[in-house]
What we know:
Layout: H1 2-18, E1 23-26, H2 28-33, H3 36-73, H4 79-104, H5 109-136, E2 140-143, H6 160-166
Parallel strand pairs: 1-2
Helix pairs in contact: 3-4, 3-5, 5-6
Amino acid sequence: MKKTLLFIGLFIALAMSSYAQKYALVDMEYILKNIPTYQTANQQLEKTSEVWQAEVDKMQDDVKEMYKNFQANVSTLNAAEKTKRENDIVAKENELQQLRNKYFGTEGEMYKRSKALIDPIHDAIYNAIKEIAIASGYQSVIDRASATSMIFASPDIDISDEVLAKLGYSK
């Protein structure tokens, strides 16, 4: 009788362990930091952003100067000249907003360049994680960098170095 109960208990324990889910962690910040093409792409985007921001700042300074000159001379201007200068300022402000949208808007040049440079890297990382997860039988892979509620996770389940090796960036 004891052997039968022990056998049933062992069978149940084995059955339950076969249904256990396997989890893995990755640290996207760590992975991205160790991919030189990502670093290069980021530097290129930063340089482009600085150039475009300088252009936007210059135009913004021009608008401020136009408004300052208008305020200084408003008392000496006739109605037609006052209206013309107000319209010039409004037109320059609209031009400034269009320039901002062109470079930094939701469908602007910065978004397009970022998508062209960064998305292929993210896609390659995702595919590498997916291949490793399928091959190793992981039901879930969690990004340690974005999991803000994670207090502790064993380094044994971190597959970040494995992902880097799969991408050809072994550490």
